[in-house]
Automatic annotation (TrEMBL):
The keyword Transmembrane helix applies. It is found in: Membrane. GO terms for cellular component: plasma membrane. Belongs to the nucleobase:cation symporter-2 (NCS2) (TC 2.A.40) family. Keywords: Membrane, Transmembrane, Transmembrane helix, Transport. This is Uracil-xanthine permease. The lineage of its organism: Bacteria, Bacillati, Bacillota, Clostridia, Eubacteriales.
Amino acid sequence: MSSKGEKREKLHIPEEGIRDARQLGIPRMLVLGLQHMFAMFGATVLVPLILVNQYGLPMSIQTTLLCAGLGTLLFHFLTKMKVPAFLGSSFAFLGGFSAVSNLDSGIFANMTGEEKLPYALGGVVIAGLFYLVMALIIKLVGVRRVMAFLPPVVTGPIIISIGLILAPNTIVDASNCWWLAGLALLTIIVANIWGKGMVKIIPILLGVLVPYVVALILSLLGVIDPTSGAYVSFEGVRAAQVVGLQQFVLPKFNISAILVMAPIAIATMMEHVGDISAISATTGKNFVEDPGLHRTLLGDGLATSLSALIGGPANTTYGENTGVLALSRVYDPAVVRIAALFAIVLSFSPAFAQIIHSIPTAIIGGVSFILYGMISAIGVRNVVENRVDLSKSRNVIIAAVILVSALGFTNGLSFTIGGTTITLTSLAIAAILGIVLNAVLPGKDYEFQGETGVQFTTPQK
């Protein structure tokens, strides 16, 4: 009787969350790692799928998974194993890949997509190096001076925008089969609110598995029509090899491709700051100061450059996994590293990639209702807990411009430099405008503090 009580106690989740997952045991840590892998998988493999199907650039899904896993482990090593972040494929660079695929003058004339891909990767390598420059600047001048430009009135709305920008994708995916998306959403809610023990801390994983098993059974029984958005097909799985090596592509460097890809780093660095702020607010740890924004930027940048060196996409810290942290309240970075190891191992299996492809997109849509919403909720929490005074006109103006820009510039903003078109994403535009307004408008009421905790700033008296 006492052993059962002890077991229940081990599974108790304190209000401040679990920071050492070893108390849960190795089997539960593996399941939690699997949950993080499922959270990142859909978006991570979507990037190479888009590159192949829409832009004709043949990037390998297996290589993408390998780079996500290795990039995450490298990031954790460079950040002293402290930050529970997962690095997956960056969507911000899709516009750059599209631009490179459309280049048709000079050396790019009559090139196939397969021939253009190495040049796009070369641009990504240089973009990743931009992170290193910014990391060096922060190291030299200090994080306090840099964060003076990024108070909660800027980072809060940016975090809110990250979730809201992703929201339309949720509706598109869920609309493929509303009842299946609803089942995924209901499973997560029930597991997280009324679940006991392990069930309570793996709601995302259950939100994928339960509707998938239901859809699979109904598909096998012939209840679901093959044309339905809930149908599960194993044709791709049967045709794939169980074990197979990744396809590596070495980058090539050309100034036109570099001018297209490298400036995108401006946008992704702003997103990085927002993501690290979100993870800090979620876990109650100030990762901006410890291990330091310079280290997190260094890890993100090197992961991006090394990924492109072997044929993978740019990497970025994933908001989906921040949502998992918020929902499970298990903040141990070791769990995320387990997810990275899963990604590396599974990158050697074409068959597994096809199994994941068999998951109906409606399930991903249902799960994303929670994940993306949690990101925006974290942004609101960041604003509230740091006591941003929205009765002041300057703060309202900054927040308003950020939100409208992030949601309004749906196609980004394009401009031409040296005959090359460069596109800033909506989030980059919002971040730049927010930073500029905060710097020039009078009446600043926050000062960056170095204390550990979610409150990075305190009102000046």
